[in-house]
Design a protein that fits this description.
This protein is mostly beta strands and 715 residues long. 5% of the residues lie in helices and 55% in strands. It folds into 2 domains: 133 residues, Ferric Hydroxamate Uptake Protein, Chain A, domain 1, CATH 2.170.130.10; 535 residues, Maltoporin, Chain A (Beta Barrel). The longest helix has 16 residues. Belongs to the TonB-dependent receptor family. One of its GO terms (cellular component) is cell outer membrane.
Length: 715
């Protein structure tokens, strides 16, 4: 794959800048009512209500009025000096995005690397995303997180680049924040059922109601049940999700929220990797998209349970104080089957059994509000986070049961009880105090400066091999400048950092210092139509230093393990363009275009298995006049090609997936004011493509054309 010419990035940036600078048309005048017009007062929200709130549910909006995801200060997207995308509740409903991995696949600048039906990892700017948050509380990423159900969340906030101010340790990729739903002031009942390809069925119930006569205590309950099959032979899905929360106004200025979330995913016939890429003579193997090596007994059970409590007090002077407590537990139980070898000579079975449990307790105390200095009003946020995570994994490692594996699901389960099980236990503690100031230097010029002081500690025991590491006083700076060119446009520049401890040692036995990610970014942002449309263009430069490299010929004293040295120079450069909102009355659109080039310290390509360029478009339009019961929409997701090096019987071979596009359609019809009929079609042209290629010399096809029909009810 040839490297892009330098001038292409420049010319395309200019084109996007021109696009961003063209004023959007004024919103069309409201159509006059007719006898067939459907009156939906519960979803009629004016522009001001969107601009003043971060909540997206029942706004019909494809953007949000404000977000605190980058700095904990509630700012509009135009005022935030980082590249931010918010996927709203309406956008998720329109596209039937029922899991986190589906949301990520449609978010600007993010890509997914799928290894099998149980593992999907997320990337941005060439680096893996390991920073996940729930209501702003950082948590560890586990493979099961990718498939969490989104019915419980109001929106998904993504901040691209280094996010160390709020997340502490991690990669300079992005942070994904899942924001939970909360009770509505009035009674609300939503329910839906759907069915689609491969006998997939889904039902949801979402009930919100006052629990006291004066409405000061409110509750909400969400339940999801999903079952079905797949285009893959023998795969069966079963997912349950439950969520309950109570909000209580203890006083006019103090609110207590207590909630519990339980998501249980128990599929069977799961794959572990894909199908072999090669025949025994070195030629490429060919098979149907439905082919699978999974046994009927293969499973990958994941359950995530979270209990949380938030106490917030609002002072008369505009300051808010919030205390958040969070306890989460994630369990995985796996029985997996894959293969080594090539087609034609017999596939040698490879099996694994493992049980994992992760428990995390988190505390977050934060205060934010305005203050006056030198005759101007500014804003500040200060906070402290403390988390403690225990990890326990018990597994067999690779088990070689013997025999020959065939793609019929009948291979018997090995005697995992007779295998040699080993345990890994880890305790990870992370603490951090952070602060940020938003200084109003002049009316158009705002400067955000801040930082975080972190403490990170890990103690790990892997089958008797001990590893301990601690770092204290680690400072992570944050700086941003925003200049309002006028009421519509602002220009910004920012510098952010993040660090990530590592467990490699050098030839003297010393543990390598944490990697340090640095993100420099400049851009232009715009807010049109009273905040109903937001657009941004960002150009970024990401550097990652202290990356472990193999120190050939040298080993760690005492243990004899391979030694490593720290190298600088891993970098990623590119741009993101993002446009979301209601371009005209009843016309919503989300569009994102992202491109980067990335290399390691030795100049080789970083993350060759990821596409470097992605374009994502989705739009809906509610027809006017006599047809205003009908909403239609569609979109396309395009990505450039990617490759990996694999090993055939003839040696190392580069295997590629070329550029491809997936097209989707949707339609929704209002049968009554309360009942809607929906239809979604994905992969319209039935494109055959690999979602994974090269991993362990295997490949996995992506979803063929599929459809969903749904009926929803709202009271």
């Amino acid at each position: 794959m040839s490297a892009p010419c330098p001038h292409r990035l420049t010319s395309l940036s200019v084109a996007l800048l021109v696009t961003l600078a063209v004023p959007l048309p004024a919103r069309a005048a409201t159509a006059s009512s007719t006898a067939t017009t459907v009156d939906l007062p519960s979803t009629t929200v004016d522009a001001q209500s969107i601009a003043d709130s971060a909540t997206t549910e029942d706004t019909r909006a494809y953007t949000t009025g404000q977000t605190a995801a980058a700095t904990r200060l509630p700012l509009s997207l135009k005022e935030t000096p980082q590249s931010v995308t918010v996927v709203t509740r309406q956008a998720m409903d329109d596209q039937q995005l029922d899991s986190v991995d589906q949301v990520v696949a449609r978010t600007t600048g993010l890509s997914t690397q799928t290894y099998d039906t149980g593992r999907a990892y997320f990337y941005s700017r060439g680096f893996q995303i390991d920073s996940f948050q729930f209501d702003g509380i950082p948590t560890a990423f586990t493979p099961g997180t990718s498939f969490l159900d989104t019915a419980l969340y109001d929106r998904v906030e993504v901040v691209r680049g280094a996010t160390g101010l709020l997340t502490g340790a991690g990669n300079p990729s992005a942070s994904i924040n899942l924001v939970r739903k909360h009770p509505t002031p009035d009674f609300s009942l939503k329910a839906s059922v759907s069915g689609g390809s491969w006998d997939n069925y889904r039902g949801t119930v979402d009930l919100s109601t006052p629990l006291s006569a004066d409405g000061r205590v409110r509750g909400r309950f969400v339940a999801v049940e999903e079952i079905g099959h797949s285009y893959l032979d023998r795969y069966q899905a079963k997912k349950q999700a439950y969520y309950g929360v109570v909000d209580a106004d203890l006083t006019d200025d103090t609110t207590l929220s207590v909630g519990y979330e339980d998501q249980d995913n128990t599929p069977t016939g799961v794959t572990w990797g894909g199908m072999p890429l090669f025949n025994s003579d070195g030629s490429r193997a060919h098979y149907s998209r439905s082919a699978s090596l999974a046994a009927k007994w293969s499973r990958w059970d994941t359950r995530q349970q979270t209990a949380f409590a938030n106490l917030e007090h609002r002072f008369d002077n505009g300051w808010n104080v919030r205390l958040a407590l969070d306890h989460s537990q994630t369990t995985n139980d796996e029985r997996l089957l894959s293969t080594l070898g090539y087609l034609g000579t017999g596939l040698y079975p490879l099996a694994l059994a493992e049980k994992d449990t992760n428990r995390q307790n988190s505390v977050d105390l934060m205060a934010s509000g305005p203050f006056t200095l030198l005759g101007r009003e500014h804003e500040a946020v200060v906070g402290y986070m403390d988390s403690r995570r225990k990890e326990h994994a018990l597994g067999t490692g690779f088990v070689y049961p013997g025999g020959v594996l065939e793609a019929n699901g009948e291979f018997p389960m090995p005697d995992f009880g007779a295998a040699s099980w080993s345990a890994t236990d880890a305790l990870i503690k992370q603490r951090g105090a952070y602060a940020a100031l938003r200084l109003s230097v002049t009316d158009p010029l705002k400067v955000i400066i801040g930082g975080r002081v972190s403490e990170y500690e890990i103690s790990q025991d892997t089958a008797g091999t001990l590893f301990d590491y601690k770092t204290r006083g680690r400072f992570t700076p944050y700086a941003g400048v925003i200049y309002a060119l006028n009421d519509t446009y602002s220009a910004y520049a920012s510098y952010t950092e993040i660090f990530n401890p590592q467990s490699y040692s050098d030839s003297s036995g010393k543990i390598l210092q944490p990697t340090t990610g640095k993100n420099r970014e400049v851009g232009l942002k715009a807010s049109y139509l009273d905040g109903r449309v937001n657009a941004s263009l960002s150009v970024f430069d990401v550097r990652l230093d202290n990356v472990a490299q193999t120190d050939t010929g040298n080993y760690v004293p005492v243990t004899g393990a391979q030694a490593y040295y720290a190298a600088n120079g891993t970098k990623s450069q590119g741009f993101d363009f993002d446009l979301q909102g209601e371009l005209a009355q009843d016309w919503n659109l989300m569009f994102g275009y992202s491109h980067y080039t990335a290399s390691q310290g030795d100049g080789s390509r970083l993350s060759s298995a990821l596409p470097r360029t992605t374009a994502k478009l989705f739009t809906t339009y509610r027809l006017p006049g006599a047809l205003d019961r009908l909403t239609v929409g569609g979109g396309t997701r395009w990505q450039s090609g990617f490759y990996e090096d694999a090993t055939s019987a003839l040696g190392t071979v580069k295997v590629e997936q070329g550029a491809y596009a997936l097209t989707s359609l949707m339609a929704r019809y209002d049968l009554t004011d309360q009942v809607q009929l929906g239809f979604n079609l994905d992969n319209l042209f039935d494109k055959k493509y690999y979602s994974m290629i090269g991993f362990y010399n295997q490949a996995l096809y992506g979803d063929p054309r599929n459809f969903t029909v749904s009926v929803s009810y709202k009271l």
